[in-house]
Amino acid sequence: MGKGQKGNITGNQLEAAVKTVLSGKGFEIVKYREWAKSPSNFGNELLLTNVPYTTIYKHKGNTEFLLISKKYNCTIRIECKWQQTSGSVDEKLPYLYLNVIEAMPEGKILILIDGKGWKEGAIKWLKESVEQKRYTKEDSKKKDILVFNLTDFFTWANKTFL
User: Fold this and answer.
1) Architecture category of domain 30-155 in CATH
2) Whose C-alpha in 25, 82, 95, 127 is 20 to 30 A from the C-alpha of 153?
3) Percentage of the chain surpassing pLDDT 90?
4) Domains of the chain: which residue ranges?
5) HSE value, Cβ hemisphere, 13 Å, CA-based, for 78
6) Is 152 exposed, middle or buried (0-12, 13-18, 19+ CB in 10 A)?
7) Which residue numbers delimit the PD-(D/E)XK nuclease domain (predicted)?
């Protein structure tokens, strides 16, 4: 099994953990494309999967999830990144961050990042960029960006969705 294939499997496990936690909190899991055809066919507590947006390069991009809740009055885009072994995924973090601040339309975005293969300083750079609101403009400074590992995500979900 190649590194990329292994990475996809472990990345899928991270996404499966998100689905498990949020479905346990009462969110219905629906493919975005099915929901977009007729939102009225679905409830108000949803975890949409494979959610499109237009990237900073003006290409079609997708994030793993969009959490929509009328009960908790929130819409949160969720991006998952897993790095089990060393590789070049670290180099994509600045691209991800710029997409979060410039291209993703939601005001609240959660980046779930985990695994032991990240280069030293990569996650620290991402967290500092979020905290210092690097490269933001007036409108993007208002975005609420969260950077969690899996443990942080579990804790947040348990505190947020009672």
Assistant:
1) 3-Layer(aba) Sandwich (3.40)
2) 95
3) 78
4) 30-155
5) 27
6) middle
7) 6-161
